[in-house]
Amino acid sequence: MDWSQPALVRAGFSGFVPFRDLPAANVPINPGVYVVVRPTGTTPKFLPASPAGWFKGKDPSVSIPVLQKKWVPDTSLVYVGKANGGSTGRRGLRKRLDEYRRHGAGDPVGHWGGRYIWQLADSDELLVGWKTTADGLARDLERDMIAEFKAAHAQRPFANLAG
User: Fold this and answer.
1) Strands, DSSP E only, in 21-143?
2) Which DSSP category does 56 fall into?
3) Model pTM score
4) Domain boundaries in the chain?
């Protein structure tokens, strides 16, 4: 698969807004999968410390050599995540993406997965897109996308540490 934003749109993803615009965006409440893309193809610069929130007293920062080793060149896709409905059916994409945004803004929110994106010097330029799914299918789609990416690039997307 081509992991560019136009290809992701053709695959059914929509939105593609900066994290700062998520509160005003029409993010669905449904379960689904979301992607984070870096629209510029330049070599990334990394921050020595993450501005993201410390959750349960843990520093979200990693060393620049770790980030450099994890970087995947020649792709704009930097993270794939999922949002299930949860036991009440109210978790969904809107709630999960709000947690992700707040974590990056420095709030002590539990969105540890994908935290590497906040050490990109241009993280404010990253775009978030989403695709709704049936509640039980978000995990499968996320897993399939990560596996397909790994098959093409010999590693997971930059900020996907598991999957």
Assistant:
1) 32-37, 77-83, 127-132
2) T
3) 0.95
4) 5-153
